[in-house]
Amino acid sequence: MHRRLTALHLVAAVAALVAVTPLIYLIVRTGSAGWENVWEILARPRTLQLSVASLGLATAVAGTCIAVGVPLAWLLTRTALPGGRLWLVVAALPLAVPSYVAAYTWLAAFPGLQGFVPAWAVLSLVSLPYVVLPVAAVLSQVDPAFDEVARTLGDGPLRSFRRTTAPLLWPAAAAGGLLTALYTLSDFGAVSLLRFDTFTRVIYTSYRAAFDRTSAAVLSLVLVALALVFVLLERAMRGRHQQWRVGAGAARHAERIPLGPWRWPALLGVVALFGLAVAFPSVMLVRLMLQSQRFEADPQAWLTATANTVQAAGVGALVALLLALPIGVLAARHKDRVTKTVASAAFISPALPGVVVGPSLVYLGLSLAPALYQTLAMLGFAYAVLFLSNAIGSIRSATAQVSRNLEDVARTLGDRPTATWWRVTARLSAPGILAGALLVLVTAMKELPATLMLRPTGFETLATEMWTFTTVGSFSQAAPYAFGLVLLAAIPAFVLARLTGRRS
Hints:
Elements: H1 2-19, H2 21-32, H3 35-42, H4 45-78, H5 86-92, H6 99-109, H7 116-127, H8 129-141, H9 145-152, H10 157-186, H11 189-193, H12 199-208, H13 213-239, H14 263-290, H15 293-297, H16 299-333, H17 337-346, H18 354-367, H19 376-386, H20 388-400, H21 404-412, H22 417-428, H23 430-446, H24 449-454, H25 462-471, H26 475-503
């Protein structure tokens, strides 16, 4: 047993170390610049302005998604809303709309949009699934007996929800809010198009336009520090509710609450919300695509970009899965100090946005592995680092739901530990493992700054082609690529929603 655990710990530790390689580069790069230069950059009023802007935007988007997402999840799972479970599938579709595509469609319709409010609105609309889906999954698993007992003790509906159901939902809502905040902090495309200066936009400019790697590295570390603030805050909030647990499934499902006269207004609100998040960008893309002469003249470029997008995202999902498996299994089965350290190190990856990982891997590629620089392998590795936490979270949750008693029974029948994992744990947790890979796949398809920096020469994806035309104001020529990206990302998002619904 000791040898087996040691091996698993070692493999997981190596995977976590690989994931934080870009962060190590940032620390080394910043340290080599000298503390005087570092302090000069940190003391600039511009740095404080960027900190306030980035932190304010992330807080506003996360708060909005929690405030809207929790009631929306309750509405979709606990009420007799017309449409039933179809809306849970629709709730996942904003995942298929990259933030920069959403910003692009709103700019095409209203050219004067810019600043904090448009950035907040766009990012809130595309980030809602990060809260809605996990909260809806928990609501589907909660035994209604909790609420019924509270009612028999004299609690009203609101008091009962606050005392019994809300504590069960809070960890999922906090985790969703964390993902939303990290997604906002790492966003580059939407804030750039909407001309709202955050760290990501300035870091990219410092690296690509000014070639100021020191300033880019220092600002990147500040951005990572802000992201870690959200990580620590989420863990602190989650820790307050560790005494609450939800089993693999409820003994029975809660009866749907009839909405009465509020039925159609509620449906109208849901339709309006998802209409703004999904339908409006899709309609605008179709309209712009019909106006595009480029689409009619060069379909081969579109097909090539689509194939490249699938290829690069597929490599990233595969690498992320290989790195996440030992970490996720270790985190689900062991609670020792080494495990907590490894898991914490691995979860630093969401604090590393593409605009940070890109320059780091450029330097590391040129310095340590020039043969890998500007290759598909390097781009796939960047995707794996960026979205590793998505895979780890899903694998950890799926593995934790498999009873250890089943593994013990298999071992008493003579199975080796590795065979036990493949025959029992892996088979039962396969939907969760697949969900993690799909989540990496759909997010990798949308990644922009790391793709711009690390793609092989002449290797264009749907995201980079769209960005090229958008930056010069050719909205109609960018439309086919944006529309193709949304359709392509919708496929794994749809499958992910079905898997989530089936598991719940």
